[in-house]
Structure formats: structure tokens, C-alpha cells
Amino acid sequence: MRRRDFIIGIIGSTAWPLAARAQPQPALPVIALVSLRSADTSVRVANAFRKGLDETGYVEGQNVTVEYDWLDGRFDRLSSFMADLVRRRVAVIATPGGSYASQAAKAATATIPIVFGVGDDPVKLRLVASLARPGGNATGYNLSVAEIPTKGLELLHGLVPKAVRFGMLVNPENVPVAARMLHDVPEAARAIGLQMQILNASTKDEIEAAFDTLVRDQIDALFVASDTYFVSQRDQLVTLTARYRIPAAYGTREDVEAGGLMSYGADNQDMWHQVGIYTGQILKGAKPADLPVLQTTKFEFLINLRTAKALGIEVPSSILLLADEVIE
């Protein structure tokens, strides 16, 4: 072999791996996680979602990209936002904890897989054909919250048995949740002899105005509808209930951890975890049409004794025994 040919051969054999490494790497699949919550109130549930992904072999930043889109109650942004995700052809749209976001995703695409987490019947929401056989591009987790508002109201009444005039804070922008609450809670209130006043709020200023009404009308206690926007405004709500000394019931544990009196609802962490698992399975090739909608099996009742003491409420032992967790 001539010396020139030998040198060229050596250069070729060493340059090829370098050239191969220099080739652009395939883009990681993109998951768009869309929620009407705020980022600062979602650390725990986002971790639960990532844990679900990890269990299916997908690690954020290594073999998958997750875009967290916290809309902070901006319902008006959903349609244009979903249209952008469809245009960019993300791999999966995850909408844990929101009927409105899930419906917006379904309206935007019939092909991109959607993994939802909703409190209303996904069949009635037209997200799936049936729970056992979703049949389209969406599947997920149903919180099965039909009895939660009634139970929450009963527990709040147990904490303040002398209270008669109750208020309920509802976000009219979240149509599916508001409709269910307006049907179920006043009916439950009448059944146990309570008066119920409805207060609407979709902004911080409207929340302030609602509390002005509560004070003016001498409302004894407040039931806060389970709503992603109200979760994002938990600090404002807890501050106002403390300022005006109003006993209040919420829908998530985060509200009680922030200083709210009590909460009763489905385990949101479990829902976000399961949505993460389904998202990973779909990335591996599973079809949403073949993945049955999961049902809630975990509910939790929390009481904040420090808040109860500040409000002058002596929590009955019968109520304490029912609590899954007590914050002291």
C-alpha cells in the first residue's frame, strides 16, 4: 500500500465517528401540559406527573421534553393556545385537572393524543365514546366528583353547626364546573335546612367584591367551588377568609396547607400521577382509544386546627375522627 493511501485511510477511519457525532440529533418528543392553574401552586402535582412519566421510562430533559403551560385561569387563551400546539404537532397534549382545557384540546385536534383529568363525566363532555373503550384520540382520568360537593358542604356544616346562611363562590367562566356546582350544592343545602347565596368571581377584583358581599349580607360560612382558578388564587382566598373570620371549605389539600379551614375532594396528586403514566404509555406506542378511562379511588378530608382555633371553632371529635389529615 502506498504511504499516501495509508494516510488517507487513517484520516477517513478517524474522521467518520467525529462526523457521525456532529450530525444533528433527533428532536425529543414534546409533551404539552396545559393547566388553568398557576405555576406556583402546582409544584406538588407537577412532580406527581413527572413521577408517572419516569415510571414508563421517560425522563424529562433526557428522552422527552415537557412544556408546562400554566394559564392561571385565563380561559380566553385556551382556543388560540391549543391551535398553536396543533400547528406545532406536539406528541401529546396532557390536560390534568380541567374539563375546560380538555374540551378545548379535543375541539382543536382529532389526531394528537390527549390525556385528560376531569371532574365531570368524560362521556357527557364528549371526550370519549365510553369509559371502557374511549374510541378516539383522548383518554385519561375521571375524578368522579358527583358526591364531593354535597359531602364537603355537610362537613363544613359539621364544623359550624350553628351556621345557617352559607355562601358559595363559583367561577362562571368554568362552565362545566359552575353548572354542576349550581345544581348540586344549593340542592344539598336545602336538604339540610341551610340558606345558600351564590357569589360569582372570575378575577381577583371580583373575589374581593364577593367578600364585600359576604360581609354585608352577614354570611356565616363559605363553600368555595372546586375550580382550577380558585386554586391559583388560594393565598388571596385564605387571606380574605382570615381577615373577615369566615369559615370556608375548599376542594383541594393545597388550600388547607395554605391556611384554609378544611377541604374535601379527590386526591389530585394521584390523578396527575396517573396522567403521567398514560402519557408515557402513549409515547411508547399505546393508543388512547385502547386505554380505558381511570376512575378515582382516593378521597381526602383535611382540617387545619390552627385556622379553626383562630376562628374560634372547636372541632367536634366526631369530625376529627373522619379527617384523613389534621394540620396542627
Please give a structural write-up.
The protein is α/β, with parallel strands linked by helices. The chain has two domains: 30-144 and 267-298, Rossmann fold (3-Layer(aba) Sandwich); 148-266 and 300-327, 3-Layer(aba) Sandwich (Rossmann fold), CATH 3.40.50.2300. Helix content is 44%, strand content 19%. The protein is built from 13 helices and 13 strands. The protein has helices at 3-22, 43-55, 78-88, 99-108, 148-159, 175-191, 204-216, 228-232, 234-243, 253-257, 268-283, 305-310, 317-322; strands at 30-35, 65-70, 92-95, 114-118, 138-142, 165-170, 195-200, 221-224, 248-250, 262-266, 294-295, 299-304, 325-327. The protein has a seven-stranded mixed beta sheet with strand order 7-6-8-9-10-12-13, with helices on both faces. Strands 2-1-3-4-5-11 form a six-stranded parallel beta sheet, sandwiched between helices. Helix 10 (253-257) links the parallel strand 9 and strand 10. Helix 2 runs parallel beside helix 11, helix 3 crosses helix 4 (99-108) and helix 7 runs parallel beside helix 9 (234-243). The longest helix is centred in the first third of the chain and has 20 residues, at 3-22. The N and C termini lie far apart (85 Å). Residues 1-22 have low confidence and may be disordered.
